[in-house]
Amino acid sequence: MASDTTVPVVIIGSGQAGLSVAYYLRRFELVPGRDFVIFDRGPDAGGAWQHRWEALRLGTAHRVNDLPGMKELGVSFDTADRSLPAREVVTDYYRRYEEHFDLKVVRPVTVRSVFNRRADLVVATTSPDYGDRETVARLIVNATGTWGAPFVPYYPGAQTFAGRHVHTAGYPSADEFAGQRVIVVGGGTSAIGFLLELEGAAAELTWAARRPIDWIHTEQLDLEGASAAVAMQDEAARTGRALPSIVSGTGVPVSRRISAGIERGILVARPMFTAIEPGGVRWDDGSFTPADAIIWASGFRPELRHLAPLKLREKAGGVSVGAGASWTDPRIFLAGYGPQASTIGASRAGRIIARQVMAQL
Ligand SMILES: Cc1cc2nc3c(=O)[nH]c(=O)nc-3n(C[C@H](O)[C@H](O)[C@H](O)COP(=O)(O)OP(=O)(O)OC[C@H]3O[C@@H](n4cnc5c(N)ncnc54)[C@H](O)[C@@H]3O)c2cc1C
């Protein structure tokens, strides 16, 4: 293993949250590559957006907020091309942002674990280009998002299913389900996007959701504007509980496209099935729907596995975080966690966390 490098701050992740923290640290005159380093395991800029499915466009349901300082580049997500895949636009803008502010993101580098060695905080990384290394840091800003921790709820018989289970994180495109009988699970905008896209391709389409859909009559949801949802997230984060679903606090905005889908009968959800069988799903009333694929748009969990040695997790299932700082270990910050888990929350996290980092250096 390569010998230790020491750096004051390690940022893990270069999505909206990690870039925003980096921007503010730089504004506080820290030098990228010397005073802080950013590791990211992705092959390119773009955070989780680079991995999203081809059909996803910017602003189909939620507003995507700009990164701090993005005006300097002369671009804004508000005026971005909505005919292009979101993954292309975001990757392009983030890449230009990294270059403009010379943030020196080191990729592809996967952080395998963060642990204590005597008084040191050690970040163990692995990379096809750089091999296995350890970096000693005074402070860690974890900005790893959720994309790497897809959540699929347990249903009896799931392993017996002869068809295909596909999670949002692995959703390719509607073409792959051409002529198939597809069940889409989930009550959020991803499930709705899949249903609308699959309508023209799948032979049969069924929508199942855990709770009735709470339609709200607005074109686009500003996630931060949904203050009840943010407050729920904040409360859970501060008390160390597992984070609730965002959708349970926001409802689903009814755009014109969605409204037309409801009228056509495509966007009508059934309460969840009770079991999965080799050929399909069984409902509460005993009826059966044959299926070739089940698409799980059932959400994500914060990706924190690599922090396990620090024992931040509370008995209540989450980590205790207030204003982006761990309440268990003051050297650890969690950017984009809980109430910051939207593009505007992640952007704001930058300023809040960078100030606290500076106070500790
Ligand atoms: C399908 C979907 C659509 C969404 N649409 C919107 C929207 O329209 N508007 C909105 O405001 N929000 C939206 N969100 C939420 C939004 O994506 C996030 O709030 C925001 O983009 C997340 O930024 P982030 O920096 O926290 O995480 P990410 O963008 O996930 O970035 C995390 C980064 O950390 C890296 N990483 C993870 N683990 C490691 C590791 N161990 N080692 C090294 N690197 C690591 C990853 O490679 C990644 O680059 C959406 C979420 C989903 C799932």
Keywords:
single chain; 361 residues; alpha/beta; FAD/NAD(P)-binding domain; 2 domains; seven-stranded mixed β-sheet; five-stranded parallel β-sheet; 7 helices; 19 strands; 22% helix; binds flavin-adenine dinucleotide
Walk me through this protein's architecture.
The chain folds into 2 domains: 5-148 and 300-360, FAD/NAD(P)-binding domain (3-Layer(bba) Sandwich); 158-219 and 254-296, 3-Layer(bba) Sandwich (FAD/NAD(P)-binding domain), CATH 3.50.50. It is globular. 22% of the residues lie in helices and 24% in strands. It has 7 helices and 19 strands. The model has no long low-confidence stretch (mean pLDDT 94). Strands 1, 2, 3, 4, 5, 6 and 19 form a 7-stranded mixed sheet that branches. It has a 5-stranded parallel sheet with strand order 7-16-8-9-12, covered by helices on one side. The chain has a 3-stranded antiparallel sheet with strand order 13-14-15, with no helix packed on it. It has 361 residues and is α/β, with parallel strands linked by helices. The structure holds flavin-adenine dinucleotide (FAD). Flavin-adenine dinucleotide is lined by residues 12-18, 39-42, 47-48, 52, 62, 64, 110-111, 143-145, 147-148, 168, 190, 223, 300, 303, 306, 336, 341-343, 346.
